[in-house]
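Internal tracking record. Fields below are filled automatically when a chain is submitted to the structure queue. Please do not edit lines marked as system-generated. If the sequence contains nonstandard residues, flag them in the REMARKS field before resubmitting.
Queue: standard
Priority: normal
Entity type: single polypeptide chain
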Amino acid sequence: MTAARVKARGRPRSATAPAEEAPRDAFAVLVAAERKGPARASSGEPPTQRRSISEQVANRIMAMIKSGNLKPGDQMPTEAQMTVAFGISRPPLREALKALTIMGVLESRQGGRYTVTHLSPSRLVAPFNVMLGGVDYGASQHFEARNVVEGELVRLCAERASAEARQRIFKLAADGRAFHHDPVAFRLADIEFHEALYRGAGNPLLAALAQGLYDLGLDVRRVASAAPGVIEISVRQHIEVAEAIVARDSAAAERAYRRHLEHVRDTTLQSMALIGRD
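SYSTEM-GENERATED OUTPUT FOLLOWS
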């Protein structure tokens, strides 16, 4: 065997198929620009290491979106292209893509390609709402959080809401008087009233957070709203809040709303005790 043949046999073969060579496209350039350090991994990396790499990849994609290099509606490259561009194997890449999909940053389209979403406030707080569903907390902590978020929203609503929004808030509050003995109809009106308050503040992100907090524990509040006298008190408090908002009195609106939340909290705790829930 000649020296040339020995040298040829000793030369390592490329582990990457020609179809998966680093793509010479704009995405590869973006990855190179965003890359903070090496993130290579083999297909056999341990889960803890893979998780760290997937977080790096997710952060790089987020950085591209924040910088405007990836825009809503942009289609991501194929998984094969991304593994080469990021220098990683498919398992951590798929973990990163899954995490970004859960967060609402990406969405999976037919054919397995991912697309950058339109990051509306509701999408941005989706992970927050998922997290809330798995957190162990008590009713007092829940209403403390509502006080912080919704109290500020009501104050902003009194300052910022348009004339049309103020009139709608007042009408929704006053219309509740027709539902003193109809808990189902009142709960529907209650949702509309609170959503109108949130929107009137002019901060969609805070409004989405408030909606997530409002939606927690609706099953218990169904029981509370059926208790004698609860709806009448809530309707009266809604009207007090609405009157202060119409008058553009932010301090009075906030005080009235906090009193209303205290009433909702107390009746919710009473209902939880009746049905044997902590």
